[in-house]
Request: fold
Amino acid sequence: MEQLKRIYISDRLFWDADFSALGSWIWRRLMDLRPLARPFLSCFIQSGETALFWHDNWTGLGPLIEITGANGPQLLRACLPAQPPTLIHGSDDYFLWRTSADTVPSQFSASRTWKALHPTPATVPWYSSIWFKSGIPKHAFHAWVSVRGRLPTRDRLLNWGMSVPSTCLLCGLADESRDHIYFSCSYSRSVWDSFFTQTSFNQPYTFSEVIRWVHHSTPPGKIRTICKLVTQAVFYAIWNERNKRLHTSVARHPQLIIREIQIILKAKLYGMDQNVGNTKRISSVRPNPGDRYLHLWFQIFPS
Reply:
């Protein structure tokens, strides 16, 4: 640190000096962060030998030069007392870190500073529809990208100025967009419908309604978990088929997609049943066969 002060800072005023042409790339990038770090630093006067009257935040209001402006020193000169204030000799001025106006200054904390710079946003209403304990990670991630409107569908590619056809790769009957793929498209709708034709569910056909429905309108507990898994698996499989057609020009019948989803979900539900069964055996509780995920699957989604 002393070497940095000697080479780069020397007699320069740290907060205002121009370092754009001095030092390494890392040093220059660090100096660019000075305006971001400055509000966090509070100065506590002891001897008065280290603190900068105009440039350090010793009043709690911020640096005086930022409050008064460039004419501050000239205007204040007439107001200064004839005798300097009494200082505490033998004690150095010191600096503490304050992450917000209502917190007590303390030593620097990386975690608290990160939270101050990146406040935790409010929980979005679709959170539990996308992220849940038993979800398949790649399916959940794809659903998250979809709900954020970040899928590279052809309508978005055209908006970016790319020269691509606008028609849907699955049905070829309308312009491709996220809301068309889920589930205005006749191809994707046939896949979606196949899982609910023999159920009492009144499944929606627009993307935003599907996200709300899967959490708020399905029965709670294991049935809701299964519905979430089905929804995300259908999202993922349809997008995967869309990409395969884009890159290989090979189209598969909806029944093949449906069968593929069924195999994946049955394997997932079997594994979930095994985990629950092992937990209950350890706790000496006899599992109820009728309460198994696979039993509910065959009861609700016969296939």
